[in-house]
Amino acid sequence: MDRNLQLLGIAKKAGLLAVGSDDVSAAARTGKAWLVVSASDASAGALRRAGQNAGSAGVVHIVAPYTKFEIGNVSRRGSPGTVAVLDAGLAAGFLKGLAEADPERYGNAAELMAEAAAADAERKKNTPSGKRRPAGL
Asked: What is this structure's pTM?
């Protein structure tokens, strides 16, 4: 199995993959989506909706070199035309792998996602955990 498809499988197992147009739309509306991925054989309507969802959320939308069947195998949910990655690091890793195989098509998106993932990691690092330290420590 392709390394990028394995990343989608990891995201699914971790609960960080929205599968299908309804879940992708909900993830985009709530600001949870980092990357919207359409299958290479998705319908024109599905591609249009995915692009609109990504645009409304201000995230990257790509058409991956994988079919609905291949994405369905890792997502364990039929043959979805669209999925959304809900973690910046996983999205950056997925796009990095695609950019290594096809830099012309995915290079810019991979760079944008790497920057977004770094900013998200920095934001998380500087966010207090909510734990209070006892006085005097």
From this structure: 0.84
